[in-house]
Amino acid sequence: MKSDQKTLKIAAPRGFCAGVDRAVRIVEVALEKYGAPVYVRHEIVHNKTVVDSLAAKGAIFVDELDQVPEDAPVVFSAHGVARAVVTEAARRNMIAVDATCPLVTKVHIETRRHAAQKRHILLIGHAGHPEVEGTMGQVAPDEVTLIETVEDANRVTPPDGAALAFATQTTLSVDDTAAIISALQFRFPEITGPRGEDICYATTNRQKAVKDIAAEVDLMLVIGAENSSNSKRLVEVALAAGAGASMLIADKEAIDWRQLAQAKHIGLSAGASAPESLVEEVVEAICQRYDIDVSEVGSIKESMNFKLPTVLTS
Q1: Which of the residues are catalytic?
Q2: pLDDT by residue (tens digit) across 162-183?
Q3: Distances (CA, A) of 36 to 33, 60, 72, 262
Q4: Domain 18-101, classified CATH 2.130.10.10, yes or no
């Protein structure tokens, strides 16, 4: 028998973005074109459900290129790779398929342009994230410095006399990044920024959707992986925007039912790497236990679509 009544507000937009959808399709089309196995350097996107599904179809996920046989195709993940990885693949005459999100590629191009113009790059991002490693790997180590926090921005010491530029990881908190940029611009008024926003449209839209409902919920659930930057930012954004509590869950099995029992108004979103099937399963699991008034909240419509690499379509 179902217990007390609750409301469930589902944020829109949520889940897969165009870059993730493209990356998943790239692996699927590569499997169709070349046959299994197709090797993938690192997780194609940060979601176990997606990775396991592709592995079941014949994708083999590896850490580095030396784990890939000479004659096998290899896909680079949506997060992007350092130039050294591309060079190594070319040296070995590998069939390399680049699934880097085009919006990450834009940051790579900006970073190389700044270095070519002798600007030292201050890259705003999280240490160890594959996107950050790929972006920093576009230039020489002494041409870029990682900035993670406002404190870093306030104490960074660039090379003497160097012209400066900044770039950002695409999946950061919009508000936190704005604070870091402000600190850099205050200290270095001549610093050059990107021609357009580096934080991607999907990250921005998902954060806004969460902000719009956060103050109305006792608990915000965000479906995503622990190593998913954009998903973890949604949890933080929800708390900052007034949610009573906020937590990251991988899937319905990770729901903390004791905490959910205490919440009358629940919010739900999903990171850009989480498929809609996981959202549907979480909603169903909650509806099985409670009398739920479910509504979708959000008016932003996304129509972005990225083409597949020509190596797969030619």
Answers
A1: 131
A2: 999 999 999 999 999 999 999 9
A3: 9, 9, 9, 48
A4: no
